[in-house]
Specification:
The protein is of the alpha+beta class. The chain folds into three domains: 13-112, Butyryl-Coa Dehydrogenase, subunit A, domain 1; 120-212, Butyryl-CoA Dehydrogenase, subunit A, domain 2 (Beta Barrel); 235-388, Butyryl-CoA Dehydrogenase, subunit A, domain 3. 48% of the residues lie in helices and 13% in strands. It contains 13 helices and eight strands. It has helices at 13-22, 25-30, 32-38, 43-52, 70-83, 85-101, 106-112, 214-218, 237-263, 281-314, 320-346, 358-371, 377-388; strands spanning 120-122, 128-133, 136-146, 154-161, 169-176, 181-182, 197-207, 211-213. Strands 1, 2, 3, 4, 5, 6, 7 and 8 form an eight-stranded mixed beta sheet that branches. A hairpin with a 2-residue loop joins strand 2 and strand 3 (136-146). Helix 9 packs antiparallel against helix 10, helix 9 (237-263) runs antiparallel to helix 12 (358-371) and helix 11 (320-346) runs antiparallel to helix 13 (377-388).
């Protein structure tokens, strides 16, 4: 197969993407409560994000994608998350899965990227099993946390191939969403509108070329020839997921602080002499501490992005300590943003318990993000601490 000639990015695609997404914040915010109630991002928001180009960020240019810089991706995803944490989380997962799809064999990419706005979902937990056949695999099983699956065209299903002589082989199988069953089982208290339902594979036959082994991928090996020498696709997937989760936390925390700064001029503190919350010393301390936590999270995010982009430009390998630091940094961003939001939530009064008041949803969304196994601050700090102490990290997922 002759590879397609890479196209230059559309004029202004990278520079204008953030502005286009920022302009959607009122619409996304207007739909945030309905998104939570319906347990999936509303069609209006999905369509608007698609038209803005958010799902093109990691699609190869030869298919009309943007291959947006990591900094642009972080800024754009933060804008979505500032308006709705669930929409932001769905967008980051689908953007990340499009990146993984671009590492599959080129013929698979031709199948998936029939247009630049194709949406790809995926799962990271290998609960499904794959059994080898003569020309591929038969996949069965239920896979939870398939974020955005109901809005996707393709799904990257994580499956394990059992071996009697050692640990199972883990692979991603590219499956059209039409071949999977979606369970109505997403009933949660945080990121409730992300549509992270379980998907079920029942005797699905996956051709051998539509499989991407995870082990070699973690070592930097992938079968795409068209993207093999492109520095954009040489960035490690796991490090990118660390970077992609940070704007979800940042956007949520930033919006909480902005809303708090407006609210304190319109309300007093009940059972005190303060007619304006903005006049109370305790408010000054709360606002300042929340702002400093968010600023620290922004600096950590910038450090992660700079390191990943510099390595992509130079081609220098990462040290184990750098990989562990990036993963610890992403978890710490989530922790700082959660602490900032909880501080703001505790200062927002009992009226903030109303479901139509964003701060209570922001706190729940950030707690949910922090529970993600790849984000969890305590786990990531332990991994980093092990490396700093001269020990093995204890995981291949670095």
């Amino acid at each position: 197969m002759t590879p397609l000639t890479p196209l230059p990015p559309p004029p202004g695609a990278d520079a204008e993407l953030v502005e286009r997404v920022r302009a959607l914040r009122p619409l996304i915010r207007e739909h945030a409560l309905r998104t939570e109630q319906e347990r999936r991002v509303t069609p209006e928001v999905v369509d608007a994000l698609t038209q803005a180009g958010i799902f093109r960020m990691n699609v190869p240019r030869r298919y009309g994608g943007y291959q947006s810089s990591l900094r642009t991706q972080v800024d754009a995803l933060a804008e979505v998350s500032a308006a709705c944490g669930s929409a932001g989380f769905m967008a980051l997962i689908q953007a990340g899965c499009a990146y993984i799809a671009a590492l599959f064999p080129d013929e698979v990419q031709d199948e998936i990227f029939t247009g630049p706005d194709v949406r790809v979902s995926g799962t990271l937990i290998p609960d499904a099993t794959a059994v080898r056949t003569g020309d591929g695999y038969v996949v069965n099983g239920t896979s939870p946390f398939a974020t955005g699956c109901q809005e996707a065209d393709w799904h990257l299903l994580t499956a394990r191939v059992e071996s009697g002589d050692g640990p199972p082989e883990i692979l991603w199988a590219a499956v059209p969403m039409a071949e999977l069953e979606v369970l109505d089982d997403w009933h949660v208290t945080g990121l409730a509108g992300s549509g992270s339902n379980s998907v079920v594979a029942r005797d699905i036959v996956v051709p051998a070329h539509r499989v991407l082994p995870v082990g070699p991928l973690l070592g930097g090996e992938f079968p795409s020839k068209a993207n093999a020498e492109d520095p954009f696709y040489r960035m490690p997937v796991l490090m990118l997921f660390c970077a992609w989760t940070t704007p979800n936390a940042l956007g949520l925390a930033r919006s909480a602080l902005a809303e708090f700064r407006e609210l304190i001029h319109r309300r007093g503190i009940t059972y005190t002499f303060y007619e304006r919350q903005s006049e109370a010393a305790v408010t000054h301390l709360q606002a300042a501490e929340a702002a400093m936590k968010i600023s620290c999270a922004e600096l950590l995010t910038g450090d992660i992005v700079t390191l990943i982009e510099s390595r992509a430009a130079s081609g220098e390998p990462y040290t184990t300590e750098e990989r562990a630091r990036i993963r610890a940094g992403s978890g710490y961003v989530a922790r700082l943003c959660t602490e900032a939001a909880e501080l703001i939530g505790s200062a927002s009064g009992a009226s903030s318990l109303r479901r139509d008041v964003p701060i209570q949803r922001t706190v729940r969304d950030l707690r949910a993000l922090s529970l993600h196994s790849f984000v969890n601050p305590a786990t990531n700090l332990e991994l980093y601490g092990r490396v700093l102490s001269g020990l093995d990290a204890g995981t291949p997922f670095l």
